[in-house]
Amino acid sequence: MTTAYKTVFGSLGNYRKGGIEVTQGDARHYVFSNVFEVASKAAPYERVVVGKNLEYVVETLRAEGDSPWFACAHDEFVVAMDGEVRVEFVALEQPVAEANGAVLAGQEPAGRSMGYVLLRQGHQSLLPAGCAYRFRAPAACALVLQTKLGALSVEKWAEICLH
Amino acid sequence: MAMLDLADKPETQAKGFAADKVQATAPDPVTGYRTFSLGAFRFSRDAYFATVQWPAQGQTRTHAIPADAFLRAMMRDVAWGFFYGWVNFDHVIGTRNHYGKVDMYAGAFNGVMKEAGVDYTETFETPLIMATFKAILHDWTNEGFDPFAAPEETGTAYGSKHGENSAAIERTRIATRRMPGLPDDSPLRDDLPVNRAFHDVPQDEPEIHAEPGFEGQLHAFNLFKYLSRSDVTWNPSVTSVCGQSLFCPTTEEFILPVFHGNDRVEWFVQLSDEIIWDIGDKNTGAPRARVTARAGDICAMPADIRHQGYSTKRSMLLVWENATPNLPKRYESGELKPHPVEF
After folding, report:
1. Does the complex come out with an ipTM higher than 0.85?
2. Residues linked to residue B59 through DSSP beta bridges, in sequence order
3. Per-residue pLDDT reduced to its tens digit, B233-242
4. What is the pTM of this model?
């Protein structure tokens, strides 16, 4: 008999958070949260830090409607965790100032449109260093970003983590 | 493996590979297996068990591990180039990576054995221990057994020597510079079949609409599709590189064949299904916690613990590593706390 496997992914509307059974020590040390829960409670495109390893972070965003234009001096990466999101790119005329993490790139960043990518659940896109990018999501969905801790990164660990 | 698989940092183990320095006996006339020596350690196997021996307090000490568990653990240690920090095969035997040299230990990170003074540690040049481990893997892995696969996917490790499975042991290692699928970077996995447990995972690719003049500069791929085609279990492989920050997702089924004690903090993002992590004290092995992670859960593994994962269904896990070289010293000196965030 062959087994019918069902792969369980999460989404903003359907996730089941795990937990910690502590024998010894403090549950806080595992800094445990769920990206769908965090994104569902955040403002649209608020870059909430859910993982931090010195200057590097993993951020969760709720994509809903149009995001501001972001730019970054180094490569970033985005993984769409559910739903569908469009990422538009602009090749900036002015180079991005050297800084860790993303910065806001203004209302209409000056430069040529590079095009866009359309991401669905599980799709990953490069957000190349030096470009401006914005997200457009007709319906709310969750994103995970790989980047560095920057001026737009929001840390609210006590709110999001098991303890 | 996470760190040494970076394309710009070629694996150190390839340099000066010490195949000619491996010490092995002739095949045993009954079992057909060779016995290996590495410093004062002696490795032998029979139909069921791998046996490791070492000297302590003027006696020979002995520890046995079921052959399948031993080969799965050794397969990871070899494939990962000794990984980060401590790779415990079980509660007694393991290796610690010093990135150029490697400690092999018995009982040194078992609270009771350490206290009793029956532990032993010896340090080896990486090429020698790598060559010895590879030779053991080649000799002790029989035809039909793939130490990289989950138990339901492969045959038995038991019995006397019959054939070999070099193809399983010598899988090509993938190195990623920036992101798979980019020109001059690691390939996607369209040529590999979808694993039986991921047949329901959508195989669509993202749409890329590049304006004229920007062809090839926008890049996206289906990460979950890529993972659904992974042909190995418990083998973090780099899929994106942001400075020293490495996303190393992998597909998991059955038990992580080692109890990993990292020399730095790492993080896990559960991408699908569920994994339960048994967590123990890094030095003594005493139980600390059991973490259940389901899709969307993210948690840190502090630098003072060891962990071993259990995954009933093959699941997708994102292992997130910081490859900065000086981190072990900064954690050991106390400059950095073992847990990454205070709140």
Report:
1. yes
2. B56
3. 999 999 999 9
4. 0.94
